[in-house]
User: Fold these one by one.
Assistant:
Number 1:
Amino acid sequence: MATLVTIKSSPIEDAEALQKAFKDAEALHKSVQGWGTDEKSVITILGHRNVYQRQQIRKSYQETYQEDLLKRLESELSGDFERAVYRWMLEPADRDAVLANVAIKDGNKGHVIIEIVSVLSPEEVLAMRRAYHNRYKHSLEEDVAAHTTGHLRQLLVGLVTSFRYGGDEINPKLAKTEADILHESIKEKKGNPEEAIRILTTRSKTQLLATFNRYRDDHGISITKKLLDNASDDFHKALHTAIRCINDHKKYYEKVLRGALKRVGTDEDGLTRVVVTRAEKDLKDIKEVYYKRNSVHLEDAVAKEISGDYKKFILTLLGK
Amino acid sequence: MATLVTIKSSPIEDAEALQKAFKDAEALHKSVQGWGTDEKSVITILGHRNVYQRQQIRKSYQETYQEDLLKRLESELSGDFERAVYRWMLEPADRDAVLANVAIKDGNKGHVIIEIVSVLSPEEVLAMRRAYHNRYKHSLEEDVAAHTTGHLRQLLVGLVTSFRYGGDEINPKLAKTEADILHESIKEKKGNPEEAIRILTTRSKTQLLATFNRYRDDHGISITKKLLDNASDDFHKALHTAIRCINDHKKYYEKVLRGALKRVGTDEDGLTRVVVTRAEKDLKDIKEVYYKRNSVHLEDAVAKEISGDYKKFILTLLGK
């Protein structure tokens, strides 16, 4: 599995890295030349390079062949395999911007936007929003707001635009008050959803974890379970997703993977998204959570459900 | 007047700048030593140094005398003069964070927050929000949201959290549709304020200017004038302020200055805020707008209304 390595800056190692990127670009060029494509070598090379190396390869390819490697791969590959390679090749902030934009266009995927902005760190969200500007000449909140209304809009725009404080301080009194406000807000849907939105979109994640814990202590049930009973409309579903992503994103991703693999026909987009975005972060932990929950290794479940080059590529990223 | 100079990075010039900062720190140290303070030399030195030089002086002072120059000045100076010098000495993003925080604590100053986030560029707003984290261990939106409710909260939090697209593209069709939405929303207050909030908090400034122009063309009156008729409650007042700051912030600042100087007793906070925050940006233009509107030079109006060291300092920043 490709892992994020610390880049050392000694000139010799820099030269070595450049030389390696050049050779990779050369091999990739060979594999896309002439009749057919050598998918195996695309998988072998790109599936084992970290984010920094992939950017160097793309640059080296552009300089050597005056062509964008990404565009070339797009035209040579197809289907789920193409989409997975394309996403893997993008820088993380840019990739998240693409995922968010696809989710906005597909009206049914608000959960992807919630997932991205709730799991990323505050600074990563800013980087993603900047990448969104560069790519789409719009702000992310502009596009989200124009496609939603009412409380769902308030929640989504709030999550997208928030720049949460990243420190570890907790205010226990606030945790108690706001656990009660959340409880009132969720109970029979009679409370004020705007206060729940305010709390979930502005408080620091550490503070929110304290609030969720306090909720469980005082109300005898976890907030996510309680919400599940009420999550019939889009707004409450979105609330549920946001809380799960903030509360324990590894458990959340496990469930996305479980759902993606259990579906008749497999949700390849969900599978690709989790594997590609977490491969260089915490996919190892997510695999463990998956095994604990399902008594089946994620790799084995994946191997059973998908096929072809797409399967080979995803298994490579999974470290098989 | 101190103006923002481009810092050249040649080693000789760097050494010269450091030497100058050291001498300034030495002179300032002398002026705050022993009985009384030599306010005149504080004004002469600090009033004629740009933002970069002031930071160097503060650093040099700390290294030489193991003391924070800002804290020392706070204890040596007093009143409006102290507040003006203190604000002048802060880096812009940090200064805006302080101004926003003071405005949140003083329930009556929402317009200052609107002014800051509507006038700054998108990237400057982010820098200010980061400075707010560092200083207060909270997010700005967290504090704003906790002190407001309803549509006023939606508008303020939206303005504070927005990271507008900064490009120059205009969508004329959108300008027409959204001019109409704004018109409906303002008319007799019967429209949907949430749509007005969405437009004003998410669209790029260039797009909003096109929308405001379209509003005037189609409805025969400028949106700010129309709003003025309806601005009786806090929400509509806030809407009015936001639109004025986005539409023409120099005209907005002129009016703040005019109001500050015309009041019985003078609004020193307003005067200081505009002069200190704009001195290294566009104070020259604002002075021109002021003269055109009042047939009196801003310096003369200021000289008439305030006195003492505060007067000398403000006039120095005004370039007198």
Note: Residues 116 and 266 of chain A are 21 Å apart (CA to CA).
Number 2:
Amino acid sequence: MRMSNLLMPTLREVPAEAEITSHKLMLRAGLIRKLAAGIYSYLPLGLRTLQKVEQIVREEMDNAGAQELLMSALLPAEAYQASGRWEVFGPSMFKMKDRNDRDFCLGPTHEELFTQTVIDSVRSYKEYPMTLYQIQHKYRDEGRPRFGIIRSREFIMKDAYSFDLTEEGLDKSYQKMYDAYCRIFNRLGLDFTIVDADSGAMGGSGSQEFMVKSPIGEDGIAYCDDCGYAANYEKAECIPQEKPSPEGDFDMEKIHTPNAHTIEELVSFLNAEAYNFAKTIIYKADDKYVAAMVRGDREVNEVKLKNLVGCVDDLELAEPFMVRQITNAEVGFAGPVGLDIPVYVDKEVAMMKNFIVGANETDMHYKNVNINKDFTPTEVADIRTIETGDVCPKCGKPIKTAQGIEVGHIFKLGTKYSDALGLKSLDETGKSKTVIMGCYGIGVTRCLAAAIEQNNDENGIIWPVSIAPYHAIVIPVNSKNEEQSEIAEKVYNDLKVKGIEVLLDDRNERAGVKFKDADLIGIPVRIVVGKKCGEGVVEYKERTAENAVEKNIDDAVNDVVEFINNNR
Amino acid sequence: MRMSNLLMPTLREVPAEAEITSHKLMLRAGLIRKLAAGIYSYLPLGLRTLQKVEQIVREEMDNAGAQELLMSALLPAEAYQASGRWEVFGPSMFKMKDRNDRDFCLGPTHEELFTQTVIDSVRSYKEYPMTLYQIQHKYRDEGRPRFGIIRSREFIMKDAYSFDLTEEGLDKSYQKMYDAYCRIFNRLGLDFTIVDADSGAMGGSGSQEFMVKSPIGEDGIAYCDDCGYAANYEKAECIPQEKPSPEGDFDMEKIHTPNAHTIEELVSFLNAEAYNFAKTIIYKADDKYVAAMVRGDREVNEVKLKNLVGCVDDLELAEPFMVRQITNAEVGFAGPVGLDIPVYVDKEVAMMKNFIVGANETDMHYKNVNINKDFTPTEVADIRTIETGDVCPKCGKPIKTAQGIEVGHIFKLGTKYSDALGLKSLDETGKSKTVIMGCYGIGVTRCLAAAIEQNNDENGIIWPVSIAPYHAIVIPVNSKNEEQSEIAEKVYNDLKVKGIEVLLDDRNERAGVKFKDADLIGIPVRIVVGKKCGEGVVEYKERTAENAVEKNIDDAVNDVVEFINNNR
């Protein structure tokens, strides 16, 4: 490709709209442009990489025996009404009416449709096991789209669904996808971690996430370097860590704590430690209200709480007016004593003595509170979020934590959708069985951003060869110099003939601009044709190398071919 | 691919929902399934062909120097409001609001977005000419989706847009697309006709459609075998054909025509010929009303009328209550005499004498009406639709007519969108120029259906090799016979190694079922491994051949390879 013909609007300035590296670089390198909040178009270089990611995903899915099909993105409401998700998705589902006033939505994920396809198409138990997938646009009206294509409202997902007649079959189908995912993310050049994930809310029996560790990741990961344990925060079991409590047999006492609404304010006002407090937080779980208690230095894990409470749809912080009504106090003074709603207590709180809680009265707290003496928990369970300083629930060694970008998710769905929609099959003995499903997603567009987050330097993107939009770039230092132009042209053609996807920077730009652009767009290897080209010498430089190396032309061409073929 | 693993739900029965051959066959061969009116999913065989069509389109677009990018399908209203098309598309645009109450739509076509992309990305006149394209889902809420994927509400389109600084540049860009389209449709195995199309309404300067002739086509084509002229009905110029009128110098006379609302009823009631009448039809053009007159045996061409009237948005039949108000009569008795709205008269009507028209009074007509004596036309012009019996406007020989499926459209847009959105560029002399655009569409999904309409027999689809989901199929007559299975397996592997995309029908089905399925899904060549396989003999049959031929195994394999490679 001649760059004089390439739509590649690189930017020297960092666009104000971007907060994170990948987003900045995707804009600066001219890979994407924003059309609306969370909605992007892909320009030629971005699309080429996207298509390569898609192709790698497709090849590995096919190799794993999955079959590709393509659903509509525009879907009739009935599909989601049958499973109840028409309501569950709430405002995150784009909904509309057609000209005949029928309800439609843009598919956020396609469990129902694949289930229905199998109901309609499969006639014999012999056709199972079966894994179907598609690579397709998905739509979620995120409340806070951000980080470019990492959390966007339109995105491309590979979603796959397995259909089995037995649990063992599901285990095998799941393992095939696990293996395929490892191959895919390796081929994409991603350094990833596989973590155990929560599967409770959807009623499944097992779930793992493929995470790319990154400070900008929105998911917390707990992992243990000693035993290899890894789980996301929702799933990671917290072993209670005891902290000193005031010793003694005290009676509960109401204390005046004017204007102390937060743990920090209380700590300073009462000259205590955060771990001497127990926070009481009021949640709305579906249509009822519950209280959750964790130690003052801990955070409630809402997924654990949601599963514990048996909440089906939404768990969210109670509205302030409801907090006032339930506690008879301003927000910030909730406590368990005398509270008329279920109180779920974290295991660590159950180890505390003589602790401090809100008094359900504005500007008042209780101190010297003790469980079962001053109030009775509805249930004691692990409802907090793991953090650094915790121990590995598997081996007891110190746990580490990191942030991760979720690029893949595999999930043993069980019979949630086959039950809801009626997907059954007679087995070989003539017995009717509910088909057991798994679902498997890859955030295809998100993988691009994750790859950039992991592969960049101060000059720009460093594409892994497998997904680089072009493998190599040939730069004549001075495009007006006839000799340089001719030799650059020859190198360009030689590389093309040898199967290398190559750019020729034939633009009438200063050499510095060309070098900067080549680095910014992350082409894995470049050949610079300069003054010495008359002597048969050019410069060879891999994107990650410190310095360029002079080589004779044929060697340079051969080295490019070898480098690319070794890293495809 | 082993067919025991293939999701291929073929149907023996013709589905009731399908009216036309391609739709029936796509359902019967398990290529698509309906999700809602005009919305389909593609099953594995359908998707493979779709991807091949896409790839051919992509290759030829790239070869023509066009650059691929990918826009969002979900688009903010602003893009279409600036061009005025937010209103123009009317109920055929899927519209919705996001969670922040902002207006969005599903893109029906992307002129505005590509124009905006060029405004945002191109900085120098040196970057022109430029042609950009995408292959992407489009959405139109058709009032009457029908014929399967021929007129659907979600479909895949290749849309391209060229950007030039001069008219000559546009001509060149247009010609490149013309040539690329010829190559594309040839490679797809389509027998197509290129017709001149109307470009008036959009303000362009030239337009052609690529039509696949088919009785189920929704577009009329007029063509001349003598001189090669071809145009669609909207564009085809009608040379007035005179018919005998009653001779004499009569005065207009009101006659009673009870219950005669149609030309047929009048012809029989008055014992006249249809060509002795002039029909007067009331239209609503944007927000005003006009009358159009054509001879009783002719039809009004609404596109010609729309252009003549200068209607910007919609031209449609006037509402019955407005017809009653304008004519003071029941519907069916409109006439030009005394009518208080503009009257547009077809050239043929202007040649008539002493003709019959409605009297603007229920159950009454006028006879012996003469133009300029009894009423004065607003304008006389060609506003009728061409038909068999007309003459070629170019050479005067008899014209032929046919129905066509529009698979491609190329259009010199001019500056409609660059004016509306402000796409200008300084040229090399520093003068500001409005960029001149062309737009070029291919109905990618529609091409599949068109290919089937043109390539089928009573047994099923006959795929052209270039877009067949698989090239070849190997069928062991009896899958339980070990020798047949083994040899079939060997042939299957041999063909795979030689780069043939091959199916192995390893299903435990009767031979008849396998043969029927192979024909139905249209695989170009098949090898049947039967009783003689022990002697090294198998049957070779191309899908279009009358009979199978016995060959020894190696010859059969080589002949498949040769046949496929010659027809790719």
Note: Chain A touches chain B through 57 residues (CB under 8 Å).
